[in-house]
C-alpha cells in the first residue's frame, strides 16, 4: 500500500518550483504547505494551490507542520545552503533544484550534512529522463554508432522570464560577484549557470566525464550583468570531442516579464548531434512545435504539438529512495562532477585558455 510522503515546497521563486504543484494530486505525496518569497507572490501561480497553506517564510511553515518528512528546495541558488542547513537539522529529506551551489565549500558541507543526517538528497535534472534522451542513450550503448567521435548539444532558451530578478543577479545565481574576465563588465551567473542539465546529459549518454573544457562568451543580447551567450568545447575522458551551447539565444523582445514561454521567435530548443565511426545521430529532444503568424503585431507564435516524458517521474524515484532506500537518481556526489565542469568553463573564460579537470 502507498504511504504518502508529507512534503512542502520552499520559497517557490525558482522557475521550476511551480512544476511540483501537481504533487497535491499525486498519491505518493501529501503536499501539506508551501512558502513563497513575498516579492514573487504574484508571479508563481499560487491560485493553483487551492486548499494548500501558503507561508511567507520557512520558519512559519516549519512551525505549523512539524510532521513534515521532506522538502523541495525551490529557491534561488544563493538560498540553497541555508535551506539545506534548516532541512537537515530537522531530519528532512531534500529534493534540490538543479544547482545546489557553485561554492565548493558549501557543496561539501551539503554532502556532509545530508549524509550525517541520514536523509536522501536528490538533485533535479529534468532533461535526463526524457524519452528522447533515453532512446539516444540506448542507441549509443548498442554500438550502432561505433566509437563516439563528437557530441554537440544545444539548449536555446528565453531570458528574461518571471524569475529574472534573481537569475540575472550574480549574487543570487552564482552566489557572489565574480567578474567574467578581465576587461569585461559582466559577472558569472547567467546562461552557463542556468543549464547544468546539458552537461549532465552528455555525461549520462556517453558514460564519459569532462576532461578538458574551453569556453568563450559572446556579446550579450540583453542589458544584464551576467553572460547570456556563450559556447563551450572540449574533450571527454574517453576521447570524445564535445560542443555545448547553453545560450539565451531566443530574443524575446527585451520584455521585463514573460509568461508565455513559447512566444516568438521560437520556444526552448534542445538538440543533440552525435557523430561516431559508424553513423551520425541527429535528435530533437524537446517539445515539437508548429509556427503561425498571428498576434496583435502579426508576430510569429509557436504552439506545442507534443511533449514526451513525465515531469514528475523524478519524484517517483525520490519516493522510492525514501520509502525503500533506493539510491537517488542524481545524488550530490554524482552531480558534483557536473558542477566542477561548469566551474571549469567559467575558469576558462577568465583565463582565455582550456582548463583540465
**SSE order in H/E notation?**
EEEHEHEHEHEHHHEEEEEEEHHE
Residue fraction in strands? 15-25%
User: Spatial order of the strands in the main sheet?
Assistant: 12-11-7-10-9-8-15
Number of helices: 9
Report, as a whole number of angstroms, the end-to-end distance. 46 Å
The CATH top-level class label of the largest domain: Alpha Beta
**Number of separate strands:** 15
Instruction: Specify the CATH homologous superfamily of the largest domain.
Output: Dihydrodipicolinate Reductase, domain 2
The SS-based structural class is alpha/beta
In CATH, the topology of the largest domain is named Dihydrodipicolinate Reductase, domain 2
The whole-angstrom Rg is 20 Å
Query: Roughly what is the average pLDDT, rounded to an integer?
Result: 90
Summarize the structure.
With 357 residues, the chain is α/β, with parallel strands linked by helices. The protein folds into 2 domains: 5-119, NAD(P)-binding Rossmann-like Domain (Rossmann fold); 131-310 and 339-356, Dihydrodipicolinate Reductase, domain 2, CATH 3.30.360. 26% of the residues lie in helices and 24% in strands.
Write up this protein:
The protein is an alpha/beta fold. It folds into 2 domains: 5-119, NAD(P)-binding Rossmann-like Domain (Rossmann fold, 3-Layer(aba) Sandwich); 131-310 and 339-356, Dihydrodipicolinate Reductase, domain 2 (2-Layer Sandwich). It has 9 helices and 15 strands. It has helices at 58-64, 80-89, 104-117, 131-142, 164-167, 170-173, 196-206, 313-324, 332-351; strands spanning 5-10, 29-35, 54-55, 70-73, 93-96, 121-123, 148-156, 210-217, 230-236, 241-245, 269-276, 279-284, 288-294, 299-306, 355-356. Strands 12-11-7-10-9-8-15 form a 7-stranded mixed sheet. It has a 6-stranded parallel sheet with strand order 3-2-1-4-5-6. A two-stranded antiparallel ribbon has the order 13-14. Helix 2 (80-89) runs parallel beside helix 3, helix 4 (131-142) runs parallel beside helix 7 (196-206) and helix 7 crosses helix 9. It starts with a strand and ends with a strand.
Amino acid at each position: 500500500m502507498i504511504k504518502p510522503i508529507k512534503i512542502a515546497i520552499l520559497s517557490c521563486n525558482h522557475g521550476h518550483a511551480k512544476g511540483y504543484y501537481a504533487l497535491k494530486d499525486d498519491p505518493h505525496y501529501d503536499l501539506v504547505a508551501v512558502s513563497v518569497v513575498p516579492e514573487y507572490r504574484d508571479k508563481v501561480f499560487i491560485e493553483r494551490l487551492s486548499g494548500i497553506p501558503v507561508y511567507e517564510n520557512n520558519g512559519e511553515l516549519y512551525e505549523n507542520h512539524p510532521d513534515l518528512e521532506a522538502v523541495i528546495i525551490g529557491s534561488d541558488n544563493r538560498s540553497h545552503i541555508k535551506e539545506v542547513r534548516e532541512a537537515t537539522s530537522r531530519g528532512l529529506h531534500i529534493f534540490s533544484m538543479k544547482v545546489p551551489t557553485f561554492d565548493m565549500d558549501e557543496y561539501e558541507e551539503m554532502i556532509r550534512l545530508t549524509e550525517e543526517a541520514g536523509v536522501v538528497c536528490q538533485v533535479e535534472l529534468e532533461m535526463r529522463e526524457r524519452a528522447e534522451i533515453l532512446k539516444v542513450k540506448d542507441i549509443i550503448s548498442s554500438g550502432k554508432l561505433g566509437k563516439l567521435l563528437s557530441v554537440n548539444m544545444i539548449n536555446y532558451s528565453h531570458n528574461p522570464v518571471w524569475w529574472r530578478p534573481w537569475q540575472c543577479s550574480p549574487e543570487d545565481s552564482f552566489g557572489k560577484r565574480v567578474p567574467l574576465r578581465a576587461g569585461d563588465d559582466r559577472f558569472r551567473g547567467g546562461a552557463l549557470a542556468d543549464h547544468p542539465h546539458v552537461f549532465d546529459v552528455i555525461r549520462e549518454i556517453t558514460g564519459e566525464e569532462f576532461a578538458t573544457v574551453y569556453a568563450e562568451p559572446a556579446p550579450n543580447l540583453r542589458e544584464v550583468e551576467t553572460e547570456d551567450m556563450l559556447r563551450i568545447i572540449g574533450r571527454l575522458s574517453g576521447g570524445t570531442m564535445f560542443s555545448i551551447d547553453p545560450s539565451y539565444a531566443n530574443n524575446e523582445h527585451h520584455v521585463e516579464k514573460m509568461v508565455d514561454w513559447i512566444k516568438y521567435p521560437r520556444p526552448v530548443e534542445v538538440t543533440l548531434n552525435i557523430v561516431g565511426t559508424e553513423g551520425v545521430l541527429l535528435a530533437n529532444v524537446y517539445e515539437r512545435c508548429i509556427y503561425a503568424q498571428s498576434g496583435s503585431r502579426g508576430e510569429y507564435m509557436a504552439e506545442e504539438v507534443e511533449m514526451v516524458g513525465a515531469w514528475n517521474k523524478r519524484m517517483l524515484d525520490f519516493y522510492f529512495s525514501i520509502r525503500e532506500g533506493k539510491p537517488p537518481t542524481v545524488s550530490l556526489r554524482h552531480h558534483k562532477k557536473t558542477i566542477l565542469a561548469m566551474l571549469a568553463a567559467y575558469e576558462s573564460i577568465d583565463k582565455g585558455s582550456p582548463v583540465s579537470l
